[in-house]
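Onboarding guide, step 5: your first structure request.
Type a short instruction followed by the sequence, for example:

Predict the 3D structure of this protein.
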Amino acid sequence: MPLARHLRIMPLWICLRWHEQAATPSQGSLHDVALAMLQYSPQVACFRHDAIVLEVSASLALFGGVRRLCRRVRHSVRALNLPLNLGLAPSASGAWLLAGAPPARHRRTLRIKALERRLDALPLQALPETAAHARWLDGIGCRSLGQLRALPRQGLQQRTHPELLRALDAAYARAPEPLV
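The system replies with structure tokens like these:
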């Protein structure tokens, strides 16, 4: 039996996220970016209110690897003249969080362990689902995603909304993300 049958290709997502300082994108702008990204992957989706994500693991060989693919995607975005940041991660939510994080050199990662390190360092506010619980989390000294992830899971389930744990698991590539 060929070895390739036993290997499972890990998903790899590129996220194109509007700069925080820019105006909220229109549906037309999101649509234009999504159409332009179809040349790189058939799996393209609008994500949250300010981003487009595309699953590119199957496209890497065709476009010459991650660096070349990211370069081509950036070139396509520049041609649209839109203020977008690029993030790359094994989850769409992780790529979205990295695309919104400074500095730019830490916005791409291929491995789960590296994704965990980079997300752990982000402030709690980076994940919008924490907003409803910000006061409680601040009161217990939880200020980063890493500190949030380190809290006892059962306690989080009892004190927060299920959406928070779903979002956290999705960002860390520990749960599937249903995307349309």
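Each response can be followed by summary notes, for example: The chain is about 40% helix and 10% strand.
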